[in-house]
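Chapter review: from sequence to fold.
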Amino acid sequence: MLVSEIVRKVPGPLSPKDELADLFREDFEEGIDYLAVVEENKFLGFLPLADLETEKEINKNVGECDLEKVDKPATAGQHFFEVLVLFRKANLPVLPVLDEKGDYDGFILLGQALEALSDSYAFQTEGGVIVLSVMMNDYSLSEISRLVEANQSKILAVVAEADPLAQERLIVHLKINQKDLSRIVATLERFDYQVVEVHHKSESTSLDQERLDLLMKYLGI
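The token string follows.
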């Protein structure tokens, strides 16, 4: 799942020379809240449409506006997981996408990225979720995978995040293609893994949405 699969070209970027009097919020589709500003193919920042009327009262053209800067833009070849981190750092629901030359190539929306992620095989496949608390120094995905596969199961997706209550630990979310997780849980606990949550098939649909909501909260957006 790459950025190139969801990059948007429309609406096109603004020029710093564009007159603010020619821009109207209602001319843009719902969900478009920021417009890219580009000069000689180089991304300068985003113009928030929520500030458009205020900017018109103060300035005459786009180049005079206070733009939202993005220190780390996305690139077309990046994976979704990398981009989610960039969204968090930018603290914006939109990111510019640059090509291999560093020129502006389009933009992506956080909502679209999460929607594409939720439509992926891992989220659509029935199964369950196990959440582990693991010491950072002891974390080994290959070892966890070996224990899961010993029970004729596969890990479909992994999300690891720092434990907010213990800096030395990770919270590891495992999506597994198994209806009954009891044998896997027993195996993990036998090897001293701390299982903090178990969610079975009947909860998978709502749980996937819950995980996306939690991920958005984690990103701070």
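Two observations follow directly from the output. The beta strands are 34-39, 42-48, 74-75, 94-98, 104-109, 128-135, 155-162, 169-176, 194-199. The chain has two domains: 3-117, 122-219.
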